[in-house]
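Input/output pair, single chain:
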Amino acid sequence: YVNAVQIYNHDYYCATDDGLVILDGVSHRQITDELTDLTQGSRIRALFTDSKERLWLCTYNGLVCYDQNGQILQFNTENSAVSSDRFRCMTELSDGTLVAGTADGINIIRGDRISQTLTAEDGLQNTQILSLVEGEDGAIWAGSDGSGIYIIKDDKLEQTYTVEDGLSSNIILRIVPHKDGYLVVTSNALCHIDLDGKIRRLDNFPYFNNYDI
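Output:
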């Protein structure tokens, strides 16, 4: 299974359920290096390149950062205060803050250190995070695996959108900013949230088994 593909240093980096596969961008031959050795056997759910041109790997054995010089930085429960070793998604805010979602909450990274985590103790009813994006006002929008959308401001949970507010499901696979609001991919439909927080279901779209936009 290939969960994500990212072009990095002109090569193809492929996240699989059994580690990282790197293909040469010209010959398409497989490349092995320290990073592929490190992630061998690990489930990798997402790849992300930040504004410093560093490649981040969201694995089920922790979060891995790989820079242009080949240096590797790791975040896991053994060496840092992450909420869990099972990382699933990641994004970068406009101020350079990095946000990563795990099976047990949200991790906020500043200066290459975990500066804050949000878990059940901070009000997250379902702690598995499936998607992350920066909102219009700089807030963190986090899609959960059963409790709708969390809105995080100043490192605190400020608001939640659920089926009671108009979402078709509380399982949120993707949140995509679009023009005057956000398109939301739930487990059973597409929804739209405008900048005033009004939610409507896109009833005319004929499919329910969507994953991204």
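The two ends are 20 Å apart (CA to CA). The first strand starts at residue 2 and ends at 8.
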